[in-house]
Amino acid sequence: MKVRQDWLRTSWQNGCARLSASETMDFWEYPIESLDSAQWEALCDGCGKCCLHKVQDEDSGRIYPTNVACKLLDTQSGQCSDYRRRRFLVPDCIRLTKNNIDDFPWLPDTCAYKLRAQGKPLYDWHYLISGSHETISEAGMSVRGRVISEEHAGPIEQHIVEKPL
Question: To which H or E segment does residue 149 belong?
């Protein structure tokens, strides 16, 4: 399936880089090294999983997932409420790049960045494939409506979940 850039430009949210409206493309199939910054940003499926807090066991180093989201994540939409200023407002907010994906082993196996770094295709529910931002929620892959904001959570240790969302 080919997706026109003007469709991306009008449907992408949260201040992500905008794409020009001049050509048809299937950039998500290219090696990530060849993507420009706008294409890189557009790879994000908007699941919100990277915005969830994790708890690390000091003794074992094991990382446990929680259902507690960053204060900037809109828990109903699953989108960052201030994407452009997120690193200023939340200094430890991660910034995924083509070169640091391996630094975050806790990224879900469904993460578009991780999939493409491994040379794997995107899932059918990814908006670039389906043409809709709703399919990620319909497939149960988004944190939308399933997490609590850190502002209301209380002790994070009480929010460890058995399986990552």
Answer: strand 148-149
Is residue 71 within 8 Å of residue 151, measured between CB atoms? yes
Rounded-to-integer distance, Cα 127 and Cα 135, Å: 7
Q: pTM for the full model?
A: 0.78
Per residue in 102-150, pLDDT (tens digit) is 999 889 999 999 999 999 999 999 999 999 999 999 999 999 999 999 9
Sheet with 148-149, side-by-side order of all strands: 52-56, 63-69, 148-149
Q: Say how many C-beta atoms besides its own lie within 10 A of residue 35's C-beta.
A: 17
Q: Burial, 146: exposed, middle or buried (Cβ in 10 Å; 0-12, 13-18, 19+)?
A: middle
Ramachandran area for residue 138 (φ above 0: left; ψ -120 to 50: alpha; else beta): alpha
**Confidence at 66, pLDDT banded by 50, 70, 90:** very high
| DSSP-assigned states of every residue in 18-84 | P--SS-EE-GGGS-GGG--HHHHHHH-----GGGEEEEE-TTT--EEEEEEE-TTEETTTTEETTGG
Which of 6, 81, 21 has the alpha carbon at shortest distance from 48? 81
